[in-house]
Amino acid sequence: MHTELTASRLLAWRLAVFAIFTASGLSIATWASRVPSIKAALDIDNSAIGLLLLGMGAASILGLSSASVIAARMGTRRGMLAVMLVLATGLALIGVGTDVVPALPLVLVGLALFGFGNGALDVMMNVDGAAIEVEVGKTILPLFHAFFSFGTVIGAGIGAAAAGARIDVFPHTVTIAIAIVAIAVISFVYVPQRTFGAPDDAPSGWRDRLATALSAWREPRTYVLGIVMLGMAFAEGGANDWMALGVSEDHGGGPALGAVALTVFSVAMTVFRVLGGPLVDRFGRVTTLRVLAATATIGILLFILAPNMPLVFVGAALWGAGASLGFPLGMSAAADDPARAAARVSAAATIGYVAFLCGPPILGVISDRIGLLNTLYIIVALVAASGFASAAAKPLPGTRGTSR
């Protein structure tokens, strides 16, 4: 840490990272809530949507894998600013390619920029969130992810209103892109410049810091935690990309009710992320994860099988509640040892976000063969596997996590 942290600076840093998490959620929900409108405007099928998502996922993997290089070279402060500007540009281009110059390739370019920016941002904001958690000595990563969910609630709500009012995708996405740029610039002022990916006594060269950041990939626990996070990240990403379409078409609710269902999912996830810290402090990570995995499994099954719209919404709520803590608690577990927190959080975040971003496009291709609702049984199986593997999140002996 290059800047001495006073109480006021730590508070300002926390608020800035809260805002960044919110902006990330806002951007993703903006895209997700308008998928039915984009599909209709471009007259494409689920396979084409899946291929768009696959392109975004490929760009996101590039962003995830580049995040350590960007942060080691620039620090997370400047790195987050840069990639937020990239994702905002991509979001605006999605609107241009939908309405102004309707063209699938232009939407794909926008999604590539959007995916790269969000992929890199996801790693860096989690690294900063984990560093703040170390500074305050409490389980607060779920709260940071709650602010991501606040962003998805806001984004899904705006998307539902825009779809209901038949507002074109272009003015919607450009407005949100401008808001994200504003958040990025303001947050930059309050995020301290930090050395990334190395304990305090490690070599100071950026190549040495990068080597330390990548060392977590040689640790078996990284991959076991990845199993825990993969199922829940898949559940969250699948909901963000396909829930609105599932309600709109497969359950016959239309685009507006599809966006409302995504809002219900996001609200449930947000509530449980706000409550996550106290739940973990009382019951422990492992028990909390197992109970929520069971909740998510029940919710997805209800969403698939529900005979009417109220039960679909109940399923969406249980799905959101159950999937709420898998990712943040995986991040918290990765950060148990403060000396190597940044490296381990970066590696664990990469595993989780590969599932979050690349799994749902595969569902789109499969859904054209067996139907979207039947495809969601894949998520049920992965969530169950996440619950069985949750013992990996047990705090490491001799670290700050042993009290949880």
Automatic annotation (TrEMBL):
Q: Which GO terms describe its cellular component?
A: plasma membrane
List, for all copies, the residue spans of the domain called Major facilitator superfamily (MFS) profile: 221-404
> What keywords appear on the UniProt entry?
Membrane, Transmembrane, Transmembrane helix
**Membrane topology listed for this record:** Multi-pass membrane protein
Subcellular compartments: Cell membrane
Question: Which Gene Ontology molecular-function terms are recorded?
Answer: transmembrane transporter activity
Report the InterPro entries cross-referenced here. Answer: MFS, MFS_dom, MFS_trans_sf, MFS_Transporter
Q: Where are the transmembrane segments?
A: 12-32, 52-72, 79-97, 103-121, 142-163, 169-191, 223-244, 256-275, 287-305, 311-329, 341-363, 375-396
The cross-references to Pfam families, in alphabetical order and at most eight, read: MFS_1
Q: Does the keyword Transmembrane apply?
A: yes
Identification of the protein by name = MFS family permease
What is the protein's species of origin?
A: Microbacterium marinum
